[in-house]
Amino acid sequence: MHHRFTQFYTAALLALTTGCAGSYTAIQPNRIATYVSSPSASPIEMAYQFDALRQRGGNKKYVKKETKNGYRVAAVRITNKSDRDINFSRDIDILYGDRPVVPTPSAVAAHDLRQGVAIYLLYLLLNPTIGATTDPRTGAISGGTTLPLGPFIAGGNMLGASGANGNLRKEFAAFDLTNRTIKSGETVYGIVSMRETSVAPIRAELRSTSMPAASLPMPAVAPAPAATPVVAPR
């Protein structure tokens, strides 16, 4: 009986500490219909959706990581209404409230938000024995069949967690706006990860330093002074 209780306790502890691998549901920024528009006089029109991971559902593990690591993951829609092509990293400032922020590169954000994989190795300890008998006098356990469930449960969860992390990484890379060229009149969609704990309006502004300089007249060049004739001594 004691042996069976120990196995039950071990299984319950594993379930509480590791749980099951979480799946990843794609954000799909290009299919979101609930964007919030940012009022701005800039020729760069931006709309955003906070809680992008939570809004899609099925991302509980990643939402917990987002909160724990101090991230705000937002889906964004950007339209270039200027008369020239622009580069997202070079020509645009992202303002979070009233201050500029630099989005975290997608590869770094995906790494920080990934769920643990090795933790599921604890399931290797879960190998229950059924049909065993215990001697009431000595407490010795005999007979029974041990079910090697641990390796299967551990392997399945590790594969599931690794696959979900890979799907997150691929989507973050596919919608990475770093150095993205946005053509005049074009609308692009992206996933922006910011190291922020509070919520504030987001807007995009075109950097003034990225505008082409106005043509200035060339300064007039003064004519060279006439050479002074040299008079030979007599």
Strand order of the largest sheet: 1-2-3-10
Report the structural category: alpha+beta
Q: Overall 3D geometry?
A: elongated
**Distance between the ends:** 135 Å
Average predicted local confidence, pLDDT:
83
Secondary structure tally, helices: 6
Share of helix, binned: 25-40%
Rg from alpha-carbon coordinates: 32 Å
Would you count the extended β strands for me? 11
The low-confidence runs, each spanning 5 or more residues with pLDDT under 50, are 1-5, 211-218
Q: What proportion strand? A: 15-25%
Helix/strand order: HEEHHEEHEEHEEHEEE
Biggest sheet features:
4 strands, antiparallel
Description:
Helix 5 (106-113) runs antiparallel to helix 6 (149-174). The longest helix has 26 residues, at 149-174. The chain has a four-stranded antiparallel beta sheet, with no helix packed on it. A three-stranded antiparallel beta sheet has the order 6-5-11. A two-stranded antiparallel sheet has the order 4-9. By secondary structure, the protein is α+β, with helices and mostly antiparallel strands. It has a domain at 22-119 and 152-210. A hairpin with a 2-residue loop joins strand 5 and strand 6. The protein contains six helices and eleven strands. The protein has helices at 2-18, 52-56, 60-68, 88-91, 106-113, 149-174, and strands spanning 36-37, 44-49, 72-80, 86-87, 92-96, 99-101, 129-134, 141-146, 181-182, 187-194, 202-206.
